[in-house]
Amino acid sequence: MSHKQYFYLILILGSLATVSPFSIDMYLPGFPRIAADLHTTIDKVQLSLTSYFIGICFGQMLYGPLVDRFGRKKPLYTGLVVYIIASFGCSLTSSVDALIGMRFLQAIGGCAGMVASQALVSDLFPVERRAEAFSSITLVIAVSPMIAPTVGGYVTSNMAWQWVFIILAGIVSLIVVAVYFFLPTGKEPDNSVSLRPKAVLNGYATVIRQPQFAIYTFAGGLANAATFAYIAGSSDVFMNIYHVTEQQYGWIFAFLAFAMIGSTQLNHLLLRRFKSEQIIKATLIYQSVLGIILILGIYNNWFGLLCLIGMMFLFLTGQGLTGPNTSALSLAPFRKHTGSASALLGSWRMGTGALLSGVVSFLHNQTAMPMAGTMAFCVMGGLVILFTGNAVVKHQARGRDIEDEISVLL
């Protein structure tokens, strides 16, 4: 694969994976105006974000077996068309409940890109290059928080928040064209993959019983949820507590997104000297320490606006390191059930994101503590899962070795 081919392939796969992050980030600056226009509160508007996370969680479970059975592209086209229709539906809503429902449907369509892009990485790249490929895709994804809130802030203030969803529909229409003309097909359809409920559940059970998948999916997914806790709480923290404008919030969000962009580039360099396992462990320890400092600082009122932004920047650098490496290690053991493994990986990430973004909203107390406390909980929980899971696997391996030695002696 030439450098040019690699660039275009990563760009398209990254664009597919970016559909949902862009859909999340672009309308965040419009929360106050959406709440005013729909005669509701920001807390209720935040539930449209939670419904999007829930839709992604369930939608990926739907697409996993489909991309294994029918190949990568047919389910992908179906999902993206559903997304486009739902986006126009969001722009036409006249109540917050309708917006919540349409966002759920939008997520069901958009998550097809997440499942297909991860499966295609396993199809098109050898095992030793997948962490690098995921890191490059994460770089594309990380650009969206720099662009989306800034664009969303200007669109909301100068046009109307409904235009955010019309623009999203237009962007995804262009992605459909790129997929049709330039994206390789990937793995061929596999008619041996059954879509009967029992067979689908058995396929997922096979995936989740794989120790390496379970450890890095659960640990990485919980750690990754810190990003969603930040997304769910940031508009309230910066706009209502620190009283920044919509445009200023967009620039703050873009600046903090640069933390993830920089760390994905750092990951390329680190992978030349360290294993993915080592990078994940060190990053989670680093973020856990910063999480504790964040909690103490907010509780004791140590942080002004600039100091809080600086601490958040340092914390979010870890998100660009854990995500690509845990994704690569989670999917590495699979060939036959790649789609199902990708779906479970994505569903766990978005499911925890939905739950913990809802927790941030539920704990809302007009301080930054719900956001910061949830972020710290995510990375510390991921660290506990990582150490506990690896300890259990090593213990089981020692037990098997002892049994083998006894059987040899007998």
From TrEMBL:
<keyword id="KW-1003">Cell membrane</keyword>
<feature type="transmembrane region" description="Helical">
    <location>
        <begin position="100"/>
        <end position="121"/>
    </location>
</feature>
<keyword id="KW-0812">Transmembrane</keyword>
<feature type="transmembrane region" description="Helical">
    <location>
        <begin position="369"/>
        <end position="393"/>
    </location>
</feature>
<dbReference type="Pfam" id="PF07690">
    <property type="entry name" value="MFS_1"/>
</dbReference>
<feature type="transmembrane region" description="Helical">
    <location>
        <begin position="213"/>
        <end position="231"/>
    </location>
</feature>
<feature type="transmembrane region" description="Helical">
    <location>
        <begin position="45"/>
        <end position="64"/>
    </location>
</feature>
<dbReference type="InterPro" id="IPR036259">
    <property type="entry name" value="MFS_trans_sf"/>
</dbReference>
<feature type="transmembrane region" description="Helical">
    <location>
        <begin position="133"/>
        <end position="155"/>
    </location>
</feature>
<keyword id="KW-0813">Transport</keyword>
<keyword id="KW-1133">Transmembrane helix</keyword>
<keyword id="KW-0472">Membrane</keyword>
<protein>
    <submittedName>
        <fullName>DHA1 family bicyclomycin/chloramphenicol resistance-like MFS transporter</fullName>
    </submittedName>
</protein>
<comment type="similarity">
    <text>Belongs to the major facilitator superfamily. Bcr/CmlA family.</text>
</comment>
<feature type="transmembrane region" description="Helical">
    <location>
        <begin position="161"/>
        <end position="183"/>
    </location>
</feature>
<feature type="transmembrane region" description="Helical">
    <location>
        <begin position="251"/>
        <end position="271"/>
    </location>
</feature>
<feature type="transmembrane region" description="Helical">
    <location>
        <begin position="302"/>
        <end position="322"/>
    </location>
</feature>
<feature type="domain" description="Major facilitator superfamily (MFS) profile">
    <location>
        <begin position="9"/>
        <end position="393"/>
    </location>
</feature>
<feature type="transmembrane region" description="Helical">
    <location>
        <begin position="76"/>
        <end position="94"/>
    </location>
</feature>
<dbReference type="InterPro" id="IPR011701">
    <property type="entry name" value="MFS"/>
</dbReference>
<dbReference type="InterPro" id="IPR004812">
    <property type="entry name" value="Efflux_drug-R_Bcr/CmlA"/>
</dbReference>
<dbReference type="InterPro" id="IPR020846">
    <property type="entry name" value="MFS_dom"/>
</dbReference>
